[in-house]
């Protein structure tokens, strides 16, 4: 209607009052319609702008939240790593403490074994002396046996038995002394090995 009315502007002089009033009403109605449409379009544009602004703010907030979450994850991972390191350090320290305690026990045993070794050495020395005396007694008995007259058969048998007993005692003592020395050497070797293993773990 607006275009048609615009085309008829040049014919205003030939239009009567009723037609002018009708056209005025049409122009007013068209103006109101266009104004309403413009208002609706403006409101819609405002809504779209507000929605766009809200979306941008949401996107910005999401980006900030995502960055904060990433930073929090990094801090959390770092904290977890520190906790793991601390736990590993405590475990290592505890293991070292246990090893040190075992080593201290072994050293205590070693000191006791050293004392026992000294006692054993003294016993071995005493046994050697007894063995020497036994050998000497055996040699003396053999000499007496050889020097005895053939007629003294009973005495000769006694001397021979004494000599044999002395030899057996000497042999037994020598075997005991050898076994004691071997046992002592084995214990000392095993103890040295244990101490070396524990020291290697420190």
From TrEMBL:
GO CC terms of this entry: peroxisome
Keyword Coiled coil attached: yes
Sections of the chain in a coiled coil: 62-201
Keywords linked to the UniProt accession: Coiled coil
Coiled coil in keyword set: yes
Superkingdom, taxonomy of origin: Eukaryota
PANTHER family: COILED-COIL DOMAIN-CONTAINING PROTEIN 33, SPERIOLIN-BINDING FACTOR
Name of the featured protein: Uncharacterized protein
Organism classification: Eukaryota, Haptista, Haptophyta, Prymnesiophyceae, Isochrysidales
């Amino acid at each position: 209607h607006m275009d048609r009315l615009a085309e008829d502007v040049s014919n205003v002089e030939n239009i009567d009052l009723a037609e002018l009033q009708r056209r005025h009403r049409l122009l007013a109605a068209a103006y109101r319609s266009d104004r309403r449409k413009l208002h609706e379009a403006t409101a819609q544009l405002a809504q779209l702008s507000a929605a766009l602004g809200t979306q941008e703010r949401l996107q910005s907030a999401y980006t900030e939240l995502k960055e904060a979450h990433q930073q929090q994850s990094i801090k959390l991972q770092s904290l977890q790593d520190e906790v793991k390191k601390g736990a590993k350090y405590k475990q290592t320290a505890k293991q070292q403490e246990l090893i040190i305690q075992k080593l201290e026990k072994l050293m205590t045993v070693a000191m006791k074994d050293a004392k026992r070794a000294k006692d054993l050495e003294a016993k071995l020395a005493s046994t050697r002396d007894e063995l020497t005396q036994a050998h000497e007694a055996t040699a003396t008995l053999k000499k007496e046996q050889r020097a005895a007259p053939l007629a003294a058969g009973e005495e000769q048998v006694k001397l021979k038995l004494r000599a044999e007993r002395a030899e057996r005692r000497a042999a037994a003592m020598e075997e005991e002394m050898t076994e004691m020395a071997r046992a002592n050497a084995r214990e000392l070797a095993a103890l040295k090995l244990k101490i070396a293993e524990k020291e290697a773990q420190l």
